[in-house]
Amino acid sequence: MRSALSDLRRSLPRVFWYVACSVIALLFLYPLLATVLQSVKSPTEAAAAPPTLFPETWSLDNYAALVSSSGSLDITRSILISIVIAVGSMVFTTMLAVFGGYGLARLKFPGANVVFFMILITFMIPFQAVITPLYLVLAQLNLTNSLLGVILVIGTFQLPFGLFIMRISFTAVPRSLEEAAMIDGCGILATLRRVMLPMALPGILTTALFGFFAGWNEFFAPLILLTNQKLYPLTVTLSILQTGQEGTLNWGVLQAGVVLTIAPCILLFIFLQRYYVSGLVSGAIK
Amino acid sequence: MASIRRRRSVAGLLMTAPAIIAVSLFFFVPLVLVVWISLHRWPILGANKFLGIDNFVRAFNDEAFISAASFTALYTVIITPILFVIGLTLALLVRRQRRGVGIFRTVFFLPVVIGLAAASYIWVWLVQSGIGPLLNIAVWLGLVDSNTNWLASTQGALGVIVVMITWKAVGMQMLLFMAGLQSIPVELEDAAKVDGASRLQTMLYVFLPLLRPTIVLILVFGVSHSLLAFDQFYIVTGGGPAQSTITAVFSIYRASFVSFDLGYGSALSLIALVVLAIVSAVQLLLLRNSDND
Question: What is the pLDDT of residue B242?
């Protein structure tokens, strides 16, 4: 009796912990699950008031409607544009962060620390704060209404984080490895490629992943920098759908669009969680 | 030897140059330009005219801007402690390794990885009058009646955004707090327990002081994001009802890209930048490590 009671006393907090965590997990998952379920309801059911919890009839009509839409609502084109922006920002940020990070960490030049400090300031100020002059700079360079302009802006404002991560990653590589490569006759670029890059691979993946997410999810930059609706990525095209500029608003179709927008993020995060989290945490602790 | 060092230093500068050019062109040049443009009438087409400080005088007399600025401050004051307390609580809940904890961590963090725009489209639907499932759950629980429209009142709209941002962003604070907590040696916690400290006392006198660097990071970044909030209000409330949920960046957007009055938009940007710099500096000063003074 006594032992049963102490067992209970010991396991009760654990049971309570599981119950509490499960309830919170449900609260976090509910909006995502509701959205996915909404997207597979039939269009009439998706517009019903009050709404149904689970789809009574399962249908992919909302996705069909979304994909077959045309004009400024051409979702297939928006998806392609989102991919171009995401991959573009990823490549731009990663390239500049790898070279810059190596330069700042290992090939110390006069003023390297000042440069790093100046770049970190950018980290503290989101580009929303300088959007008006930024627009004029891009206009001067003929980069408004251009996907390249959007990529350069997103990539640049993602750069401080990338440089930070790459500088940490390269600093962590033992100097002896680099020296051994140099003694074997490798030049600076060959050392970077053969010795440093493989060692810094987790940092590179983190930088690339954040660059991709930043480009894929960005809303404000394309909204401001693109006036041609045919160049809108998914995030902005959905606002045309939501405000019903093209006929009546269909919540099922909108949620199908949302599912297409969030699915890559969730899948990439689940598979590459390690790099996502380790990058953030190393950034936070240093 | 000296020539090798020289070559390495030249190579370092060359490799860093693209990053320096990009950040200069798209951040430092705009940062200087914003001051210059703010002193002008600067239409998107047509001639510029030097105005001196007229744009700033206009801003401080512009009721719409003053109300946007105070609404942004109100939003920041509400959302910051909520994210802080819930983020820390979640971190304490899942910081220890045990069976199943990984799944909970992932689920709590999941909304962070979807975009703010996507999250906004989800929530504008969840709370929609009549068809919104979250609203209908509230009706079913007897909390509100069925013709409620949360987005039709300022408090309701602000409440929706606060709940949504908590859902969307609290996982990030949880993760940062977890990282901070993990860097505290277990012995310290044990020692406090041996000394008879209660959980609350351990929290207040052991954890919080040692978490100071994490707290600075979380507050400075969190506050600057809240002060520059735009996407969620643009998509979910559209600045309504009656323009009562227009934020500072929303008013910059409207001045520069709806009215095409870039001079006035730049003046508002400069005011926002100065406020941001002051608020960040004050937080850094207040939270600096007094042991090192």
Answer: 92
A33-59: per-residue pLDDT in tens?
999 999 999 888 888 888 888 888 898
Is the pLDDT confidence value at B281 over 70? yes
Co-location of B7 and B123 in the same domain = no
For residue B107, tell me if it sits in a domain. yes
Structure confidence by residue, pLDDT tens digits, B88-97: 999 999 988 8
- Counting the structural domains of chain B, the total is 2
Q: What is the 3-state secondary structure (H, E, C) of A136-175?
A: HHHHHCCCCCCHHHHHHHHHHHHHHHHHHHHHHHHHHCCH
B158 and B102: one domain? yes
Summarize pLDDT for B2-52 with one digit per residue, the tens.
Answer: 687 888 889 999 999 999 999 999 999 999 999 999 999 999 888 889 998
The 8-class DSSP code of residue A51 comes to P
- A25/B113 Cβ within 8 A: no
B9-13 own/partner pairs: CB under 8 Å, 24+ apart:
B9/A107, B9/A108, B9/A109, B9/A110, B10/A109, B11/A103, B11/A107, B11/A188, B12/A102, B12/A103, B12/A104, B12/A106, B12/A107, B12/A108, B12/A109, B12/A112, B13/A103, B13/A107, B13/A109
- Residue A103's closest chain B neighbor by CA? B12
Chain A contact for B102, CB < 8 A?
Answer: no
Ordered by where they begin, the domains of chain A are: 69-285 (1.10.3720.10)
Helices vs. strands in chain A: H and E counts, helices first: 14, 0
Using alpha carbons, select from B121, B44, B149, B273 the residue that is nearest to residue A252. Answer: B121
Question: Choosing among A26, A108, A124, A128, which should be mutated to test the B contact, i.e. which has the most B CBs within 10 A?
Answer: A128
Q: How many percent of chain B have pLDDT more than 90? A: 71
As for the ipTM of the complex, it is 0.92
Name the nearest CA neighbour of B249 among B223, B231, B264, B261. B231
Domain of B13, in residue numbers: 1-28
Which CATH number characterizes residue B109's domain?
A: 1.10.3720.10
Q: Is residue B264 part of a domain?
A: yes
